[in-house]
Amino acid sequence: MQKSLLCLLIIVYTAVAVPISSEYSEDRTYPRFIEFPDGEGNMHTVDLEAEPDMELLAEIERNPANNQYLLYTRRNQRISQTLVINNANSITNSNFNARVPTVVIAHGWLSNQYTDINPTIRDAYLKKSDVNVIVLDWRRLALSDYATAARGVPAVGRGLGQFLAFLNRVTGQAFTEMHLVGFSLGAHLVGNAGRELNGRVARVTGGKYHGHFYIVFFFFKALDPAGPLWNYNTNRVNPRDGVYVEAIHTDGGYTVGGLGIGTNVANADFYPNGGISQPGCYTNLCNHNRAWEFFAATVTYNHLVGRQCATQTQLTWNNCRGSQLRMGNDDLRKSGSGMYRLDTGRRYPY
């Protein structure tokens, strides 16, 4: 399995369910210099206080077309078709079907269209039902240093929002039929896409938003949202980014090695196995990746069910007794709120 996803520090864990504290995780600070591997598993030192590449960030801000939108359907399950913003022919001449739901997948840092998350989630959806799957490849920014990539995420997210507005205009597909799935930095990215449309699209049928605009009916899955540089970042994913925002936390540990944000950021926040160490994992990278692996499995089986936790203590000691809510899956009419605990197995489908 390609290991080009976000990984800042490798720490050996025992495979036990360790309690998580949202308050502690929110206050967690990272050292300036952190070790992480590249796509080949070679370790490098990253400076979280490094000066971002302002020239690259300015280009990303100016030109949303830097993003690639790669369409897969049941008619082209392996060979993508490229959709281009402001090019209506690229959409009308493709296999895009406005009568079926659309799923957008946004990868994380040091990744691209070929990273395992994309074909895994793509195949789970296409085997399950007739959908449009759009893989967002934002490698131009994602392959830059972490400080630059994190700072540029909001601009990439706004570009995605503009593309989805264009897709809506060309095809007439309702925003109610669009489901955005983002992993790590990609989780914050899709949140910013929803924010872009909530600010630009007025009077879409639905409930009022802040007394002025009507909320766009996006459904979000934030898969272990990235932690470093995001704990106090106002651009991070939040419950107001869509009509239903769900987060799956798998690596939000007490130590600086935790790659996920480890605190509630959504309408419904799921903490599988306590949200820190996952059965069968011995590194932060494995724990982090479990978020999208769990999600892909739930698209196929819809089998992982959380119990709502009334207090942090219940979550900590795994004695939540609240209502049940299924984690993940492909249900576009799903709703729920609160934090949920569930336990999984060590191997697929968990």
UniProtKB/TrEMBL annotation:
<dbReference type="GO" id="GO:0017171">
    <property type="term" value="F:serine hydrolase activity"/>
</dbReference>
<keyword id="KW-0732">Signal</keyword>
<feature type="signal peptide">
    <location>
        <begin position="1"/>
        <end position="17"/>
    </location>
</feature>
<dbReference type="GO" id="GO:0005615">
    <property type="term" value="C:extracellular space"/>
</dbReference>
<dbReference type="InterPro" id="IPR033906">
    <property type="entry name" value="Lipase_N"/>
</dbReference>
<dbReference type="GO" id="GO:0016042">
    <property type="term" value="P:lipid catabolic process"/>
</dbReference>
<protein>
    <recommendedName>
        <fullName>Lipase domain-containing protein</fullName>
    </recommendedName>
</protein>
<dbReference type="GO" id="GO:0016298">
    <property type="term" value="F:lipase activity"/>
</dbReference>
<dbReference type="InterPro" id="IPR013818">
    <property type="entry name" value="Lipase"/>
</dbReference>
<keyword id="KW-0964">Secreted</keyword>
<comment type="similarity">
    <text>Belongs to the AB hydrolase superfamily. Lipase family.</text>
</comment>
<dbReference type="InterPro" id="IPR029058">
    <property type="entry name" value="AB_hydrolase_fold"/>
</dbReference>
<dbReference type="Pfam" id="PF00151">
    <property type="entry name" value="Lipase"/>
</dbReference>
<feature type="domain" description="Lipase">
    <location>
        <begin position="62"/>
        <end position="322"/>
    </location>
</feature>
<dbReference type="InterPro" id="IPR000734">
    <property type="entry name" value="TAG_lipase"/>
</dbReference>
